[in-house]
């Protein structure tokens, strides 16, 4: 079950996890995988993965770090991506309905490189930074 309490146990990560053959350059930390599994939020990870590279190409600062946030609004939610706090969203999407169990969640995304030198996007919880 995804709860605020369950998220407190994630500091760092032991492994990176691929969740989709469609997004081979994106991986989830242990905490992000917990959010996807327990919050039934693979759709959120897919939404981020669809947009991560395009946003990175649109602004050099988004090539270094992306701050994603899901916030419940009524029966739906709003998903945004920012350069940092205090900046207008570089991306926003309204979703009409969700059963996501938390009022909000932050997913941070930053690049790393694998052993072959290929760029990978790592999705993780702020507590795992």
Descriptors for this entry?
129 residues, alpha+beta, Nuclear Transport Factor 2, Chain: A, six-stranded mixed β-sheet
List the helices and strands and how they pair.
Layout: H1 4-7, E1 26-28, H2 30-38, H3 42-58, E2 66-73, E3 76-82, E4 91-95, E5 104-113, E6 119-124
Parallel strand pairs: 1-6
Antiparallel strand pairs: 2-3, 2-5, 3-4, 5-6
Helix pairs in contact: 2-3
N-to-C order of helices and strands: HEHHEEEEE
In what order do the strands lie side by side in the largest sheet? Answer: 1-6-5-2-3-4
What does the largest sheet look like?
6 strands, mixed
Q: What's the total helix number?
A: 3
How many β strands by DSSP? 6
State mean pLDDT (0 to 100 scale).
Answer: 97
Structural class: alpha+beta
What's the CATH topology label? Answer: Nuclear Transport Factor 2, Chain: A
Through-space gap between termini: 23 Å
Explain this structure to me?
- Helix content is 23%, strand content 30%.
- It is of the alpha+beta class.
- The chain has a single domain, classed as Nuclear Transport Factor 2, Chain: A (Roll), CATH 3.10.450.
- Strands 1-6-5-2-3-4 form a six-stranded mixed beta sheet.
- Strand 5 and strand 6 (119-124) form a beta hairpin.
- Helix 2 packs across helix 3 (42-58).
- The longest helix has 17 residues, at 42-58.
- The two termini are 23 Å apart.
Offer a quick outline of the entry.
The protein has 129 residues and is of the alpha+beta class. It has helices at 4-7, 30-38, 42-58; strands at 26-28, 66-73, 76-82, 91-95, 104-113, 119-124. A hairpin with a 5-residue loop joins strand 5 (104-113) and strand 6 (119-124).
């Amino acid at each position: 079950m995804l709860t605020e309490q369950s998220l407190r146990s994630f500091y760092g990560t032991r492994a990176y996890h691929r969740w989709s053959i469609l997004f081979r350059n994106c991986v989830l930390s242990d905490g992000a995988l917990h959010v996807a599994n327990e919050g039934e939020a693979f759709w959120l990870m897919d939404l981020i993965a669809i947009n991560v590279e395009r946003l990175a190409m649109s602004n050099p600062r988004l090539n270094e770090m992306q701050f994603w946030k899901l916030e419940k609004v009524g029966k739906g939610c709003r998903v945004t991506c920012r350069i940092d706090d205090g900046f207008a969203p570089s991306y926003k999407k309204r979703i009409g309905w969700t059963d996501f169990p938390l009022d909000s969640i932050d997913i941070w995304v930053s690049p790393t490189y694998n052993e072959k030198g290929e760029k990978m996007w790592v999705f993780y919880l702020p507590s795992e930074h």
